[in-house]
Amino acid sequence: MAKVEEYIPIVGQSIIDDLRLLAEKLKGKVIQQINSTSVGGGVAEILTNMVPLLRELGVDTRWDLIKGGEQFFQVTKKFHNALHGRSEEILQSDFDVFMETSRENIKEVNIYGDIVFIHDPQPIALVEKKTTNKWIWRCHIDVSSPNQKVWGFLKNFISKYDAAVFSAPSFSQKLPIHQFLISPSIDPLSDKNKEIPQETIDAVLKKYRISPDKPIITQISRFDRLKDPLGVIEAYKRVRKYNICQLILAGGTAIDDPEGAKVLEEVKEASSDDPDIHILLLPQNDIEVNALQRASAVIVQKSIREGFGLTVTEALWKAKPVVASNVGGIPLQIKHKYSGLLCHSIEGASFAIKQLLNSPEYATKLGLNGREHIRNNFLVTRHLREYMLLFLSAYHTEDIVYL
Ligand code: UDP
Asked: Which of 39, 45, 327 for a ligand 1 pocket mutation test, highest count of atoms within 8 Å of Cβ?
């Protein structure tokens, strides 16, 4: 793991000095972070980066997981989709399954934090254990138009927290508690984002039998319908009528996402007739993700809904031209025609990909603008600062705190 001072050349000395000052003020407080998976997906990614840095700064931060069986994660995935606005039939039995596992976790999970920081809906009911400590709920989902049945159910828990955190202004909801807007971030020095030698990139392409000679279009995502992998294949097929290119769809699995295997089958089926489509089931391997992103001519994120889209952040940080849907947190990262191209449809995505493949100078410019936009707004150092201010604000509830 990188040390805090290694970020100075990237963000400047004064930002690191600020972090140390804030950390000093949190001395003696224990921050307990809780979510449902240690690998797979953006939440685990962020915690993996942030927890060691907070600890190095001297903030006593620990990370715990709740437990859940297949049925529980099927229900929470259904909730996740419904909160993202996808039509789902939510039954009373789903709430019963959720509550049954929640009751077990309430019994089993040891709560010791001065500040308990709960991520997403899966562990939300732990708030029943609230005593005099501070509880914050961190929502990573695009809840701009949630299914009201699920939102209403969760709201009963959220209202018991001291504060809630959302990733984008459009996600905030009417709630009786303080709300904060904090966007996610990437770690520029992690294995996923650090500079790597060309030989490593070449070796990864060789491992997966991908030719370096044809421009590569890539989407890195869990195999999830909301990431629209079939739409990406369709867009690529339209591009390849005019441009020589190849497609990589690379994704791993997350234990809290039971739909993955089925979607992967559909993706394999839709791509079986084209040897230039590479479906990669990546083991958790950040260097390989890094290499594939760096090897790409264009990165795509054609999500139907997206909490934030860390894959977009990762690609922009690598100065890659990105084509991504105008949903969720993506427009915070991509200013259309400045730091990437936004799209609204398969046709729009294929048009934008063609434009980037055919105008390398324009593509390079968008990528470079994207990198600076990420440097200024979406690196882990900004995120650490805002989280520490958030934790401090928990002890100053009578003041309004703007981050
Ligand atoms: N990711 C990965 N391997 C994969 C698929 C995804 O390491 O096979 C990472 C990806 O690089 C990113 C995170 O998982 O860091 C996904 O975060 P994002 O916000 O894009 O989507 P989420 O999965 O949280 O919906």
From this structure: 45
